[in-house]
Structure prediction request, 344 residues.
Amino acid sequence: MIAAPLRLILDRDALVANWRTLAAMSGPAACGAAVKADGYGLGARAVVRHLAEAGCRDVFVATWSEAMAFADAGIALSVLHGVRAADMAVALAATHARPVLNSVEQLRRWRDAGGGACDVMVDTGMNRLGIAPEDVAAGLLDGMQVETLMSHLASADEDVPLNARQRDAFAALRGRSGARRMSLANSAGIALGADYAFDLTRPGIALYGGVPGPALAGRIRQVVTPEAQILQRRRVPAGASVGYNATWTAAVDTEVAIVNLGYADGYLRCFSDRGQAGASGAVLPVIGRVSMDLTAIDVSAAPDLAEGDWLAFGYDLPATAALSGLSQYELLTGLGARFDRMWR
Prediction:
């Protein structure tokens, strides 16, 4: 296999430390892990392996195609999007995964087919997926083998009354569904306090270095650092421009490195003239327009850098979100398949 000219350096210790922080904040509740979208772009199998070694026992994916990638992994997981009619044959045969049923139709489909253990999502105010609390209170789940009753917070990263309303609506269902456990809190929800933890928490973004609210600031470590290889180093004379549409012009003679990275890899045009790379302690600005798979860097402050060397790009998620206007989720899940993913 040919090594790629761009790579993601993934910090195993930071990933595990983040999970342990969130587990401690969850109190007596179990702490799981959302690994949908291929582990938020890091590689779900590796994420699960590292977290399982640390003690994580509850894993969540979005779809059955994601679930089947773990058929030989020896772990049990929940499929958040439930079961479409097209999923039923796979779901009924799966011994390592159970659906999170999200609608009356899905519940009936699963019950009528003789499905076994399941999870159930209740909508307490997000108006996305889930059955109504009134359906649970009316006995819709009677006779079903419900492992975990779930709901999802709409605005856990904000201090708004909706959080408490959702918590209270969910708490009112305790003991009324036959579920063995109840689960409400995502990453930001964990930080809202013990009365949001219930029996199981489901962090996602914070595992991977995201900070979805001030209560987690300073407690979550960066996991992902993109690096790109220098394809060419060149001197751009004063008055000459760099890149498409000549958006950057050299005020003085400038040393420029061209790296194999661009918007096709998830390093988007919003980083044009705004992003930063680094090497040997020097901060090196992105100059000109980011193109599909090339980006220019002012390396005047790093005279020893040469073709074939690697540059690390600033990717602290909260800071990069503020710089780019992208959400921390987009920054992670948008990183493309052309990166080699390297755990250290």
